[in-house]
């Protein structure tokens, strides 16, 4: 049976996965709370393989290199995530990567993930990697879309619309949770419309 693939993404209510110049919010938009952080820690404690695109790998590596020990980017769940076996898909990066258990795989993400799904004994999860995951979603390789919606609208500073340009999908809600009374995690099974 093929491994499942989960596209795990943080979003504002208006669908942005990041903020641009002039934005003074961090990756959680200042809305992380103990329940969310505990849940993220548990998710990344499960056996799985992380799959990252080159841009997200570069962003994570840079944020970690430039951060202090008490920065949000060094939350315990991020440390757990960073120590998972990881496949980084890229045609531009060079080995070795600054990631403890990373394998650099050259090629098209669709081909790489299709092969991983066929061969992996572990479930696959990708956090971020928006453009790669849109392509994988369109190719039918994403089993679950897990969107963590933070209670903010970033209409002026929001960048990286997480689904702009994706195909049309029907979504079957398979799980929903609220953390800290304000942050929603919605997990869907996508079906091409």
Q: Gap between N and C termini, in Å? A: 25 Å
Structural class call reads alpha/beta
Q: Write out the strand line-up for the largest beta sheet, numbering strands in chain order.
A: 5-4-3-6-1-7-10-9
Do you know the CATH architecture? 3-Layer(aba) Sandwich
Care to describe what's here?
This protein starts with a strand and ends with a strand. The relative contact order is 0.27. Helix content is 26%, strand content 32%. The protein has one domain: Dihydrofolate Reductase, subunit A. The chain is globular, with a radius of gyration of 16 Å. The chain is of the alpha/beta class. Helix 1 packs parallel to helix 3.
Question: Short summary of the structure?
Answer:
The chain has 193 residues and is α/β, with parallel strands linked by helices.
Name a few traits of the molecule.
193 residues, Dihydrofolate Reductase, subunit A, two-stranded antiparallel sheet, alpha/beta
What is the topology?
Elements: E1 5-12, E2 16-19, H1 34-43, E3 49-53, H2 54-66, H3 76-82, E4 86-89, E5 102-105, H4 109-119, E6 124-127, H5 130-138, E7 144-150, E8 158-161, E9 169-179, E10 183-192
Parallel strand pairs: 1-6, 1-7, 3-4, 3-6, 4-5
Antiparallel strand pairs: 2-8, 7-10, 9-10
């Amino acid at each position: 049976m093929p491994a499942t693939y989960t596209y795990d993404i943080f979003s504002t209510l208006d669908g942005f996965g990041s903020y641009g110049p002039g934005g003074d919010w961090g990756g959680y938009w200042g809305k992380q709370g103990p329940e969310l952080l505990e849940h993220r820690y548990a998710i990344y404690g499960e056996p799985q393989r992380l799959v990252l695109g080159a841009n997200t790998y570069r962003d994570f590596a840079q944020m970690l290199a430039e951060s202090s020990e008490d920065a949000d980017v060094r939350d315990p769940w991020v440390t757990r995530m960073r120590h998972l076996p990881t496949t980084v898909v890229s045609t531009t990066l060079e080995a070795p990567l600054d990631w403890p258990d990373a394998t650099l795989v050259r090629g098209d993400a669709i081909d790489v993930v299709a092969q991983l799904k066929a061969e992996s004994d572990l479930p696959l999860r990708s956090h971020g990697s928006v453009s790669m995951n849109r392509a994988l979603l369109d190719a039918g390789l994403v089993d679950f879309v897990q969107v963590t919606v933070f209670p903010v609208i970033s209409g002026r500073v929001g960048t990286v619309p997480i689904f702009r340009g994706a195909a049309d999908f029907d979504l079957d809600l398979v799980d929903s949770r609220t953390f800290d009374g304000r942050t929603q995690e919605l997990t869907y099974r996508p079906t091409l419309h």
